[in-house]
Amino acid sequence: MKASSKFTRAVSAAALTVGLVGPVSGAAFLFSADAAFAAVVSRIEVRGNQRVDDQTIINYTGIRPGQNYGPGDVDQAVKSLYGTGLFSDVSVVQSGSTLVVEVSEYATVNAVIFRGNKKAKDDQLAAAVQLKPRGTFSQAALDQDTEAVREVYSRIGRSDVVVTPQVSEVGNGRVNIVYDIQEGDRTKIARIEFVGNNAYSDRRLRDVISTKKSNILSFLFRNDVYDENRLRADEEALRRFYYNRGYADFQIVSSDGILNEAENEYVVTFAIEEGERYRFGDISIDSTIPELGGQDLLRYVETEQGEVYSAKDVEDSILSLAEAVAGSGYVFAQVNPRGDRDVANRTISVVYTIDQGPRTYVERIEIRGNDRTRDYVIRREFDIAEGDAFNQVLVQRAKRRLEALNFFETVNISTVQGSEPDQVVMVVDVVEKSTGEFTVGGGYSTGGSNSGPSVELSVTERNFLGRGQYIRLAGSGGTNSRDYRISFTEPYFLGRRISAGFDLFRSTTELDDYDTATTGGTVRFGLPITEALSAQIGYTYKIDEYDLDDCSITDSSTGSNTCGLSNFIGRDIARGDWQTSAVTLGLTFNTLDSITSPREGIYAKTEAELAGVGGDASYYKLTARAQYFALLNEEYDLAFVGTVGGGYVDSWGDEELRTFDLFRSNDRLIRGFEYNGIGPVDSGDHLGYQAYANASAEVTFPMPVLPESLGFRGAVFSDVATVGGTPFDDVNESDGIRASVGVGIQWASPFGPLRVNYAEPIVKKDEDEVQRFSFGIGSQF
């Protein structure tokens, strides 16, 4: 039995080694098992190759004439030849004393051609496929590339695309690859549904996620594209929404999109479990480091007993504690929260434990997925570098900063073991998204010199050349005005977290009696003080030019004129071109949950401007404005915003204030009145005023009937303002309080926030100019 088994193994090995090709004597293998496993060949012959030379193929086999070889060597030779990616078939057999290596070469790709594509550009599709000109062809790669082309179309909302690959030979072992593409119609999202939600309505949750239902304006927003990566981001947005509102047990059971192929529409469904709503219980600190007392560190904690549980407050507390501990010299200390649920009382007590953690260092930071954004743009958002002590809190802070850049669809940071036990490798995976915008907008504004129809054209790039820089070119025009502006911002000036930028502008306005033109520029810097507080400093130089129409100034000292203007305005025009050189200092405090559609937080800005560092003007101007946002009702998405503001301007030195240096009323001050329609009056002209104070209360709500994906909200509001003060004698100051109430509709349009208001003045002066209806495009901040 043993002899028979040995015989069988010998015959099998011989068959594998030589392939039983040619008139080979089986006796040699029957009686000499060693010969089957150790043969010697005198010559190696290569067959079937056209482009790869014989010696290169022989070198890949690793076998040499006169050298002993066995089945393992043959197996390795075949693997090596396949591993080159040059051959579709390989055979290694022995014929007598000759080892025959027969290969079939892959064809070479001559060209890759896309036909029928309009919605996806050639460059975009070429970047997605792996077969390239002068590369080798394989059917497996072609199949993968066909699926990759389909995926490109799926990401732009065309899941019913038909991609047919064709391979045509062009001679000399070369082939052309042609993808015949039938793009089909856009795949829509018919419905977005939620299962298991009780605390919040479907409408409220649809406002949280970025995926939207298709509507008549989807071609502008492009947010109705079903995408798995976007769906994962929406899941995270829902988690944070619930975790920050007390639902610590919240879970997403499933999320998926079902495609109705007949209608080419998706139905997206999120199945969730909300759980109970918790409040914070006892808050304490447990420190195992003797020098760090728990009570001393409580002032850094932002969670308070009795408040609604918020994961963000816990994260902020961890970050604040970690910074305080590191500042005390314990860079390896770790801060970890430990929650204790009291289900009966629905509270979560949090203990922040502080331990001296293991000494772990960052070996290196690997960044993946940034095809456009340069590595240093991502690395500079980290307060941690190679060789530094690893700190999970700083990693999470960097993740927040990267997400806030708005350069990426998703950001994921993970760690893997480094080359040593105390080393870790940080892996940063990002998925990039489009950062450029080309906008054509139109509108109709009422009140002021820019009243009437207007159009705006702008090109914006938030990640210029992948360097993280911001650049914007914009031009706009109305019935009697033209505006041009170029803006550029470098967010990390000289490698530090200091923004630097400039604005160049030119505006012209045609008024009833005279024309104005302003040309100038601003250089500005921004410095973050905390995550919420930042400081700004800027320098502006501008030249104001005035041109009278069919009238004249008869006395430049008094401003007497034939234009029907106030003599004070005439006097200022008679001074000729006016140069203003001003320095501006500002502070901005921002805790808003969203800059585009805020529901909670504070946005406050104060600014001091000093003119007179050169130029003709000499004045100082102080302004402040604060807005408080609060969600009144989560289920119905009722939001409140309260606004207060004020300002004062006066001259310094020998130069007097001009009318053009004064404040003028607008709808940010009080609605229901014309632009520059209140305040001091002379000869029927409102001159502007030196001081103002205003307040506003507003409640916004989703528009009934209209789908929330359109971005429309309604508003009811009440405004109150007081203005007064004038540097001119014999002028009706017309000071005192004005008030109005009204309703509005706001739209988060692709061209910027658009607002329509109807306001009714309820407290006004006889000389005030009323403007009940207003319409315009612009930011509310």
From TrEMBL:
Q: Is the keyword Signal in the record?
A: yes
Q: Where in the cell is it found?
A: Cell outer membrane; Membrane
Enumerate the Gene Ontology biological process terms. Gram-negative-bacterium-type cell outer membrane assembly; protein insertion into membrane
- The yes or no answer to whether the keyword Methyltransferase is present is no
| InterPro entries in UniProt | Bac_surfAg_D15 (IPR000184), BamA/TamA_POTRA (IPR010827), D15-like (IPR039910), OM_assembly_BamA (IPR023707), POTRA (IPR034746)
Residues of the POTRA domain: 39-106, 107-184, 187-275, 360-433
Q: Which family does it belong to?
A: Belongs to the BamA family.
* Quaternary structure annotation from Swiss-Prot or TrEMBL: Part of the Bam complex.
The UniProt entry, under PANTHER family, shows: OUTER MEMBRANE PROTEIN ASSEMBLY FACTOR BAMA, SORTING AND ASSEMBLY MACHINERY SAMM50 PROTEIN FAMILY MEMBER
* HAMAP family tied to this protein: OM_assembly_BamA
Name of the protein this chain belongs to: Outer membrane protein assembly factor BamA
